[in-house]
Amino acid sequence: MKPIDLRSDTVTRPTPAMRAAMMAAEVGDDVFGDDPTVNALQVRIAALLGKEAALFMPSGTQSNLCALMAHCQRGDEYLVGQGAHTYRYEGGGAAVMGSIQPQPLANQPDGTIRLEDIEAAIKPDDAHFARTRLLALENTFGGQVLPAAYVEAATSLAKRKGLATHLDGARLFNAAVASGVPARQLAAPFDTVSVCFSKGLGAPVGSALVGPKDFIARALRIRKMAGGGLRQAGILAAAALHALDHHVERLAEDHANARTLAAGLQGLPGVTVQLPQTNIVFIDLAPERAPGVVERLAEHGVLCTGLYRLRLVTHLDVQADDIQRAVAVLRQHL
Ligand SMILES: *Cc1c(COP(=O)(O)O)cnc(C)c1O
Predict the structure, then answer these.
(1) Contacts from 219-225 at CB under 8 Å and sequence distance 24+?
(2) Which residue's CA is the closest to the ligand 1 atom numbered 6?
(3) Which run of H or of E encompasses 184?
(4) Residue 250 belongs to what H/E stretch?
(5) How far is CA 234 from the centre of its chain?
(6) Cα–ligand 1 centroid distance for 187 (angstroms)
(7) Using the 8-state DSSP alphabet, how is residue 333 labeled?
């Protein structure tokens, strides 16, 4: 029996319809700027997120790196959550490649960074300090939708203090579908936003960075430097366009599956499961239950990651009956 792969929403395979769209894509050389499918995607995603311009990127990591480097010069600093992807899970690229100093700040359980912490971390204009240039937030964060009032307050504070704002929106469409607020509105408080097509949207590859025209022009140069100038990238952009057409609304199914999964695990001794807002379920295990649990679940056909805190992610390739099967396995083997 095929394992139920809940390790990430990046494990999806392109659907036959997506492959057909990729096959049929009109292409050019995107480094010359003449791949019509890439250009169409860039126009579409910029409009969808309410920004002037967009750049198609190979990965979310590269989108974020190009964003940080286009916002900050060497010796500048960005404020970011301790648990944020751009700080924690991108190989330290901002520091390594951009000579940008991260100033990590505590993330609260809901993914926010306290306004007092942001304000206290902004350095005065003094030769002792790196120049604080940018506030970077993430939505969704650990599968949670950032509260709109918080986003408004944090970005207003940043603006008042002369900082630019970037949103890592790898799962912004999950946030939009879960909250019923259009992605464009979630993006509005930020100068720039990155989104991923290869997570819940089910494309094999791809991300986009959106923002003002002059910013995107700077990001284009950095993308080239980073080796992200792709040639007949329209084959990939076609998958992203297909995903925008067919895979956004259906994220609600992933969210419903995640809730069903979490609900099915309530009441197990030594197991704590919060009801998820989107497609990521965290299972906290009593310490004595944790060793070997991922391996044991894998033997019974359920793949996930973690140790004391397991992470299970629903997606396009997981159906409601898979969730029932997963619940049964988890109830027996956690
Ligand atoms: C996945 C992810 C990214 C980018 O990851 P890539 O694998 O490089 O596409 C960035 N931010 C968050 C929050 C993510 O989940």
Answers:
(1) 219/55, 219/66, 219/67, 219/69, 219/70, 220/55, 222/65, 222/66, 222/69, 222/70, 223/55, 223/57, 223/62, 223/66, 224/31
(2) 60
(3) helix 183-187
(4) none
(5) 22
(6) 17
(7) H
Give the C-alpha distances (Å, rounded to integers) separating 301 from 7, 9, 82, 297, 322.
12, 17, 33, 6, 10
Distances, alpha carbon 274 to alpha carbons 93, 189, 291, 309, 323, in Å: 32, 29, 21, 12, 16
Per-residue pLDDT of 235-277, as tens digits, reads 999 999 999 999 999 999 999 999 999 999 999 999 999 999 9
**Cβ-based burial of 5 (10 A; exposed 0-12, middle 13-18, buried ≥19):** buried
pLDDT (tens digit, 9 = 90+) per residue, 124-172?
999 999 999 999 999 999 999 999 999 999 999 999 999 999 999 999 9
How many helices and strands, by DSSP H and E, does the chain display?
A: 14, 13
Domains belonging to the chain, first-starting first, are 16-245 (3.40.640.10), 250-333 (3.90.1150.10)
Is the entire prediction scored with pTM above 0.90?
yes
What Cα–Cα distance (Å) separates residue 144 from each residue in 112, 148, 174? 10, 12, 9
What contacts 226, CB < 8 A, 6 or more positions away? 62, 65, 66, 97
Q: How far apart are CA 210 and CA 145, in angstroms?
A: 20
Q: Rg of the chain over CA atoms, in angstroms?
A: 20
Those residues whose C-beta lies under 8 Å from the C-beta of residue 318, and which sit 6 or more positions away, are 4, 5, 6, 254, 257
Closest C-alpha to ligand 1, atom 2? 170
Residue 61 Cα: closest atom of ligand 1: 8
Side by side, the strands of the sheet bearing 280-285 are 271-273, 280-285, 309-313, 305-306
Following CA atoms 22, 236, 174, 49 in sequence, which dihedral angle do they give, to the nearest 10 degrees?
-110
Spatial CB neighbours of 256, under 8 Å, sequence gap ≥ 6: none
Q: How many residues does the chain have?
A: 334
- 84 Cα: distance to centroid of ligand 1 (angstroms): 10
Can you tell me the distance from the alpha carbon of 270 to that of 285, in angstroms, rounded to the nearest whole number? 6
